[in-house]
Design brief:
3 strands; three-stranded mixed beta sheet; alpha+beta; GMP Synthetase, Chain A, domain 3
């Protein structure tokens, strides 16, 4: 799978979140940005993003996923994926 395909998959979930994706094959780094994350812990944010691709993870299409989930304010203080 390509990063563009993972990005399109995430965007298709209609979350109103913004995403950046890097990687290839089954290993990806995903950055998600949303004001929805303001009231969530770091783990809850990651879980929310991973729920969007649960089927692909279960099917083995995606394997090693790193998630960085940020609020818009946190994002404004970072560059790129922040990894």
């Amino acid at each position: 799978m390509l990063a563009t395909e993972v990005h399109a998959l995430l965007e298709s979930k209609n979350t109103e979140w913004t995403f950046a994706v890097e990687g290839e094959g089954r290993n990806f780094q995903i950055e998600a940005v949303s004001a929805d994350f303001e009231s969530m812990t770091r783990v809850k944010r990651q879980q929310a993003v991973l729920r969007l691709i649960t089927d692909e993870i279960a099917d083995g299409i995606l394997h090693a996923i790193t998630v960085i989930a940020l609020t818009p304010e946190e994002k404004s203080k970072r560059r790129g994926l922040g990894i």
